[in-house]
Structures are given as C-alpha cells and as structure tokens.
Amino acid sequence: MRNVDLNTITAAAVSSFAGLPDARQRLLVQGLLQALHGYAKQVQLTHAEWRAGLAFLHRVGDISSDTRSEFSLLSDVSGFSSLIDMLASDPADAAVTPGSNLGPFHAGGSPWLDNPAQLIGDNAGRRVLLRGRVVDQDGRPLPQARLDFWQNAADGLYWQQDPQQPANNLRCQLHMDNDGAFAIATIRPVPYQIPLDGPVWHELVQPAGLSGWRPAHFHLIVSAPGHRTLVTELFDVEDPYLDRDAVFGVREALVGRYVTVNDPAACTLLGVSGPECLAMEVVLRLSAAD
Ligand code: BEZ
Ligand code: FE
C-alpha cells in the first residue's frame, strides 16, 4: 500500500476492515470510516482542528464516570439520541406513541408500587395526577403492561443528584390494572438544565448561544409481552421551554395538558381537600414486536 493518496486513502482504510467477522459490525465500522473521511475532505480539516477535536473528546471522557456520562450528553445535545429514537420507532404508524430520550437518570431496580401509586411523600410542588391507559395499535387495552416511571423534584433535581431527597424519590414501577390503566399521584415536574459543569456545556452549547433548559417532563418505559418496549417522555403544553428543548426530545404527540377534574376519588389520592384537582390523562400505544 505504498501508493496510497488523497483519492485512494478512504477506500484503502475501508477495505482494511473487510476482515471483521461480524457483518453488522463490519457495516458500522466501514460506514463510519467512509462518513468521517468524507467529512474531513468536505471541511478540509487541519491538523490543529483534528487535535483540538480529539482533546475535546478527551475532556468529555475525563469528566465521565459510572454515574455521569458526558458522552451521552454529547449525543443528546447533538440530536443524535433523538435521531436514533426516531430510527427505532415505526415512522409509518402514527397510531404508536413516539419514543423520546431515556436521559441519564434512569436506574434499574425502582420500587414496585400498587397501582394507583402514591409518590408525593414530603415533596413540595403542585400535586397532580398522571392517569393513563396502555393499548396496542388497534386501541385494545394491554393489562399485562408494566410501567417504569421517574421524574424530578420541585428543586429540578432527580433523587440521585440531591442528597436532600430520600432514595427512590419520585420513581416507581407499576403493573397495569385489568383495563390496562394506571394512575400516579405525584407533583408537577419542573424544567431543569442539562449539566453545566462539563465540556459539552462550556465548549459547545453555551458558545452556540443555546439554552441548556429541558422542558418539564415525566419519564416512562412501558413494556408488554409481544410488544416493542416504549421509552418516552410526557411534556406539559404550558411549559416555556417546549420549543427549545436542549436535547430535542419533544414530539407533538407527547405534549399533554393538566386539566382540572371534578373527581373526589382522584383528589383523595392526591390528598387534596375538595372535589377538584389537576390531572394529565394519556394514552400510550405500543406497536407489536417484530
Ligand atoms: C433527562 O431527561 O433526564 C436528561 C436528558 C438529557 C440530558 C440531561 C437530562
Ligand atoms: Fe429528565
């Protein structure tokens, strides 16, 4: 390979990985090389710029740990996480609830609670009820479905970020009832900022003049036998950051509205005196597994 030049280097590099035994890995590696070489040629990348790019990735790695992935944040703010979410959902089927960011604050082992669930505890914040039904593409209830739920507290933080909160605050797992329905008595989540102490914020998002805010949301993972697992979020139509989410997670179908309901039983669940309280109602539609 002595005669490699600007015209042949890409093909040479791509074909050097032709021996990767796994066909999918081969496709991923060779496709990435093709795209990266094309990018360098397109922008006429210099040595200094490439070194600066590598140094940035070093800093992204340096601040990452078992509990903090700056690489995930980089993927989120560049729209890459949302792109992968969109590739994974079925674009042809408008009846299916779209996926959205998992985010860094999901942890396994959330406590299983009875449905309806009571998460309010000592939390400050506006008491609200999240009520939903899990159905298939044809609208049939899925009583076998399970929900993994988490959200932030009134100070904007998830329990893992905040030593003031009890362990497992504002998170749970639930089984649906016989109608495929669930209810969670909780507090209205609040907008919060992505981590502002790392290179993704200091060197990329802030210099671009972008906001680091995410609109308030609930996180949900919904699974049911024979159906694709849905990782998604639910937003609040009144949120000021809905149209400038730092991580591109908002989809029209995921925007809900809190409405005042006159439902004494629901309000009792919230510990609200009087017959009226605030509720968001959602239908979560799962597609059949492949
Ligand atoms: C979240 O939704 O929890 C989240 C997503 C991306 C970056 C930071 C937080
Ligand atoms: Fe979140």
Provide structural commentary.
The protein has 2 domains: 37 residues; 216 residues, Sandwich (Protocatechuate 3,4-Dioxygenase, subunit A), CATH 2.60.130.10. The strands form 3 sheets. The protein has a 5-stranded mixed beta sheet with strand order 1-5-2-12-11. The chain has a 5-stranded mixed beta sheet with strand order 4-3-8-9-10, with no helix packed on it. The protein is globular. By secondary structure, it is of the alpha/beta class. Helix 1 runs antiparallel to helix 2. The protein contains 7 helices and 12 strands. A hairpin with a 6-residue loop joins strand 8 and strand 9. Bound molecules: benzoic acid and fe (iii) ion. Benzoic acid binds next to helix 4.
Which structural category do the helix and sheet elements fall into?
alpha/beta
- The name of the CATH architecture of the largest domain is Sandwich
Beta strand count: 12
State the end-to-end CA separation. Answer: 45 Å
Overall mean pLDDT stands at 94
Low-confidence stretches: none
The major β-sheet equals: 5 strands, mixed
**What would you give as the CATH superfamily of the largest domain?**
Aromatic compound dioxygenase
User: Rounded to an integer, what's the Rg over CA atoms?
Assistant: 23 Å
CATH class of the largest domain: Mainly Beta
* Number of discrete helical segments: 7
Looking at this protein, list some descriptive labels:
about 290 residues; alpha/beta; Protocatechuate 3,4-Dioxygenase, subunit A; 2 domains; 5-stranded mixed sheet; 7 helices; 12 strands; about 25% helix; about 20% strand; binds benzoic acid; binds fe (iii) ion
